[in-house]
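On clarity, I found the account of how folds are encoded harder to follow than it need be. Since the whole study asks how a given chain folds, the encoding of that fold should be made plain. For illustration, here is how one protein appears when written out as sequence plus structure tokens:
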Amino acid sequence: MNILIIGGSGLIGSNINKVLSSNLNYNKITATHLSFPCNNTVYYDPLLTAPDYIENTKWNVIINTGALTNVDFCEDNIDLSYRSTVESNKKLLDLAKRDQARFIYISTDYIFDGINGPYYEQDAPNPINIYGKHKLEAERLSITYSNSLIIRVTNVYGDEIRKKNFLARIVNELNVGNTLTIDAAFDQLATPINALDVARAIDVLITDDKVGIYHLSSTDYMSRVQLLQKINQYFNNRVNIIAKSTADLNQRALRPLSAGLIASKFRQEYPNFIFSNIDDYINSINYG
């Protein structure tokens, strides 16, 4: 089985590469990067002509983790957001159709408006910002292909080379002795999930030839303020938390407030699958 991972140097992509590379059922795994190269990735821009190592391989699975994820930047750079999220996905979907490959698209709870979350797979999308609108359009393109799998996640954290994700960045700063002051929203609720768990779940779904839409989430449901309070329990309150409403933060893009995802479909199909939580992750860093 040949697997192509788009965005292999990012948080989700690198964890998928790590998990799938340990599965002996997969013959060849190629992970790509766009702007940040790693030792185990190759350059590939889906909007350009595919290099020979992409074009000349018959792929069995293509996983698209790539997107322009800076929500506020997307609001002011609509064309770039569209190309990065929608147009690139079109190209990758064409590649999947060429090879009749399983196509896996990583999406987000930002396709919802955040009024009545957390959300099930069957809930009606209603994005309120450019990023969410473009992710939903890419989703809808993907789901027209019968051999596609949509994975929705949000507030993803975990191990990555650049430590860009919110939780890893904060914990890393505290571990080197820094004290932080952070403005955080108390009214934006979400379901944080470890990227390693996302990768493990995708491995299971690939093995079982699943298609359709799946929400993935752990047991945590919290705001950024509550997340920082959790971190403070392990670091002697060295984060000075300035709790603010979303309105007071004056962020460029609208945010879904009561958002997050309910993974009951996945849990019903895989009742023995164990998701980790934020406590597990912090403990793994401090004591692992």
Notes: The longest strand covers residues 102-108. The two ends are 33 Å apart (CA to CA).
